[in-house]
Every structure is written in structure tokens, then in C-alpha cells.
Amino acid sequence: MKDLVSIITPCYNSADFIEETIQSVLSQTYENWEWLITDDLSKDNTVEIIRKYNDTRIKLQVLEKNGGAGNARNNSLERAQGRYIAFLDSDDFWYPEYLETMTDYMQEHHAELVYCNYSRCDEQLQPILKDFLADKVVTFSNLLKTCRLAPVSTMYDTKRVGKFLFPVKSKREDHVMWLNLLKVIPEGMPINKTMAKYRMRENSVSRKKKNIIKDQYLVYKDFMGFSTLKSLYYTANWAVNGFMKYSKIFN
């Protein structure tokens, strides 16, 4: 029997998009998965939409207090039973072969972490930038300068590396988690194939790069324990690389 994949999803006020996300999971060719959705006290009808789907693999928990995406992801991670951890935010989308291709590659190449290309789309899932390419082996060193790993396109093997939680006090929790993971494994492997869609919503934090320089600085200063000078150096590298990655958005 194929190994279980645990899909980790935080959601908050996602009623406009969650059904497309659900359909992308139900359409997966790889069927041995559990989907751990943690709702962060949505004020719309997100929870009602999720509960319409009668599939025992979908495991929804609604929090009693809003705690942010990192806290919601941690809640799902703590409940996860699978060997492989995959991340899918409640407004993103996977192609049907995503889970099968990722797990097959990990098993064949004995990889501890893999990531793939993803499309960068508007709210209607239409591409607005060129696909982000998984074209480099990721290491702790090069991940310091730019975060090539996105939750929608990355998977890791808990049997080989254990579970990694998100820091709830960082607004750059994804980057901190990936850096912590890459401290204990030598590299993450690329699959140069587009198998996911990342929805770039108008109110997305990731689209406000100019406003989060301080948060990124704290990734290095507070969470990596770097000196002020070293933290400023990596923040500058991240800012330049981030501008190149999303340059059209600032035009």
C-alpha cells in the first residue's frame, strides 16, 4: 500500500475559493491521503462549504480563537499521521498528478524534500506572471538569500526528517520553517514540472514586499540568531531577489 500523505491547510474566510481547492484534492490520482483543514474562525460560510463534502479523508477542525496561519498549520501538523507532509492553502490549486509525482520522485531518489514549478495566478486562476521554476537544488545557504520554497509546491518526508512546526510569532513563518528544516537536511530537490497554481490575491501579504522588510530582517536576527550586520546583508539580498521575482506587481 502507498504511504499516507497528510495535506496541511489553514483557512480563513475562503468561501470564494475553497471549492476549487477541494476539487483539486479530490481529483488527485494518488488516493491515500488525509486532509487536515484547520479553520481559523472564519466569519463567512467557509466551514459550511467544507462540511458539504462527505469524504472521511477530510478532517476539519474549527478553532475557538483566531491565531493566524502559522498556528492553524501547526494544529493540522500536530494531528497529521502521514509519512509525507504536503501544504495547500485554502485558495490554491493542485493538478491531478501532483501528489503522485511528488511521492514517486521522493521514493525513487530517496529525497527528503522536493519542490516543483507553480503558476502564479490572479483570483480567477489565470496566470499573471511566468511560472516560478524549480530549477535549483535548495540548500540552507541559498535559501537565506531568497525563499524558493512555497507551501503549495513543496513536500517533505517525516520518516526521514520528523515534523517541523511554524513559528507563530513571525509574519514570515514559511521561510523560518523551511530554513529550520534545511538546517538538518543537506538539500531539497527540484522537479521542473508545473503542477500547482498559487493564487495571488489582492490582499495577500506576499504581495506587499515593501511593507515586510522588517519582518524579513527578524527572520535572520531573531529566528536564525545572526548579527545585525549579517541580518542586514541577507535582508538586502532577499529584497533584491524578491523584487525580481514579483517585479511586474510593482509597476
TrEMBL record:
**A molecular-function term among this protein's GO annotations:** hexosyltransferase activity
UniProt keyword annotation of Transferase present: yes
Q: Where does the signal sequence lie?
A: none
Q: What is this protein called?
A: Glycosyl transferase family 2
Entries under Pfam families matching the protein: Glycos_transf_2 (PF00535)
**Which organism was this protein described from?**
Chryseobacterium contaminans
Keywords attached to this entry: Transferase
Q: What top-level branch of life does the organism fall under?
A: Bacteria
Q: Where is the Glycosyltransferase 2-like domain?
A: 6-124
